[in-house]
Amino acid sequence: MTRNIIKPKSIFIGTAVILLIGVLVWQGVTAHGNPNPTIKHLSPTAAIVDTAILVFREGLEAILVLAAITASLVRTQNDYWKPISVGAGFSFLATLITWFVVVGIINLVGNTTSELNIQAATGLLANIVLLVIMNWFFHKIYWTGWISLHNRKKRELIETTTSDTQNMTYKGLVILGLTSIYREGFEVVLFLQSIRLQVGSQVVLLGTLIGLGFTLIVAILTFIAHQRLPYKKMLILTGIMLCAVLFVMTGETVQEMQQAGWIGVTNIGLRIPGWMGLWFSIVPTVQTLVSQVLAVVFVVGSYAVAEYARIRKPQKKASVRSASH
Prior knowledge:
With 325 residues, the chain is mainly alpha-helical. The protein has one domain. The protein contains 10 helices and no strands. The longest helix is centred in the C-terminal third of the chain and has 39 residues, at 286-324.
């Protein structure tokens, strides 16, 4: 008789989903009140969840890139994957330094600019970056170009290695590991500034630690336990979560722009439950609702158009050619 064994990766994904749904339900039941478009809405708990999702999503991509670069090296050339890992470690330190630099710049600018203008500007920047990385066309370039670029650079460094250039090769592989991961860290730093200005650094730190905890679990399963994780399914799942984060960030950004006087406020007179304002920044104004819908339509629409260009259009051409013959 065969026994069904639950794999660690299934437990991990299932637990993450259950925890997220549990927190959402708990907050939805306990939250009260009608959201006011003139005040901040994102609760500390919602900010922690959003931060954790952002960090985990970028961490998952970083692990996937690192795994693609080091896969062949671990099996054949054990010495070459070590400098890449060292570079990945340096990227974590570089991300921390970038965080303090960006915070310092924002605080410096804050001496001459109102807090509302800073929040509106950082929120707008975070939304633009998030829209770009969620665009399907960009990810097509990312997976085929970004990873291929690093793999090509890795091969060039290894193939040209001699006794005289060994030290240079080591440094080159360290830099390769640094650049492949630091990109994700830099994006996270930009994303989290808007949330930090709303709820503070301590809340962001807690959410970051949670996201890093999940990332660490995936890293252990990938690089130590050598588990073949369903990366595509995990990216789709976190992509759906990230779409919800985009929805929230767009609503928050529009509200901050309204508070700063950048755009007007047009109330529509609807009564919206408090938990929707706390969790999804849904408030009864035309500007926020339209912006949130457009953001989601942009992401989903670009994916649909790209899928049509990638699959359905070639299929139609193939059917036309076969019919003509």
